[in-house]
Amino acid sequence: MTPITEVEGRRLALSNLEKVLYPATGFTKGEVLHYYATTADVLLPHLLDRPVSFLRYPDGPDGQVFFTKNVPPGTPKWVTTAEVPRVEGPARMVLIQDLPSLMWAANLVTEFHTPQWLIGAPGDADRLVFDLDPGPPATVVECCEVALWLRERLAADGIDAYAKTSGSKGLHLAAAIHPAPSEQATEYAKELAMEAEKALPRRALHRMTKSLRPGKVFVDWSQNAARKTTATPYTLRARPHPTVSTPVTWQEIEDCASPESLTFTAPDLAPRLQDYGDLLAPLLDAEGAGGLP
Asked: Where is the DNA ligase D polymerase domain (predicted)?
């Protein structure tokens, strides 16, 4: 029988708890649920009021992996949903507003992806993001070099940047900004990506062209577009190991000498949270947001 658990007054059926989702480490679905339950205090504020896109991998990263934006069939009535405008027409999407909703979604086995705007103001970005994606043989070590340049460049415009691992190969930089049209945020991010390429011609690239990618870091500015989403802080990723998109300190970026030094899995997060708390908490403080020039 599927066990029924009560979470803050909501009854949840949590299934297949012994199922191994990450064969490389034997990490089970039960451990996935435990991870999300124990990181909820820091994860939920980054999900709050942002429509969630799910990258689901119910049979593990080696099984079927598929993206879900619309409300999944069977979603409980108590899970908050909202109509979201899209280019192809409005859609109804999930908002993860509380612990029961988080655990229901975690039971689907998913990565969480969110846009740079809140549901109350669709298309008005309150976050600026850069996805630093290394082209082999470049690694996250080269991403750190580009990240440090971008931090200084953003600071020159009065914008404070914070970093997290992507949970895959690269880094994400994020900054809180005064709400601005997503088109304006995208254009500003593209300008800075182009500047990075000029300043670091052997390292940075602002175009996705595959033939140009080897050995360089693609500064993906496009995730600021209203229709795009980015992996939410603290989400697990559908990778061979249970890696997490993990906030990191700038000192860790400065000291990065190998990809392993910036690779974190679910068991690493509890001690990091004890030591650092939420390193991305400043993104949640509207008063500390910077304005786009």
From this structure: 28-279
Contact 126, 177 (CB under 8 A): yes
Instruction: Encode pLDDT of 98-133 as tens digits.
Output: 999 999 999 999 999 999 999 999 999 999 999 999
Rounded CA-CA distance 241/168 in Å is 10
pLDDT digits (tens, 9 = 90+) for 216-246: 999 999 999 999 999 999 999 999 999 999 9
**Between 99-107 and 29-38, two packed helices, what is the crossing angle to 10 degrees?**
160
Q: What is the pTM of this model?
A: 0.96
Residue 61, C-beta contacts closer than 8 angstroms, at least 6 positions apart: 21, 22, 238, 239, 240
Range 50-68 burial, b when 16+ CB lie within 10 A, else e: bbbbbbbbbebbeeeeeeb
Q: Say how far apart CA 144 and CA 102 lie, in whole Å.
A: 31
Question: Across the beta sheet with 247-248, what order do the strands follow?
Answer: 204-205, 217-220, 124-134, 171-181, 162-165, 247-248
120-124: list long-range contacts, CB under 8 Å, 24+ apart.
120/49, 121/179, 122/84, 122/85, 122/226, 123/85, 123/181, 123/182, 123/226, 124/179, 124/180, 124/181, 124/182
Would you say 122 and 91 are in contact if contact means Cβ atoms under 8 Å apart? no
Closest C-alpha to 293, from 154, 190, 160:
154
**Cα(202)–Cα(20) distance, rounded to whole angstroms?**
42
Place of tokens 């990258």: 55
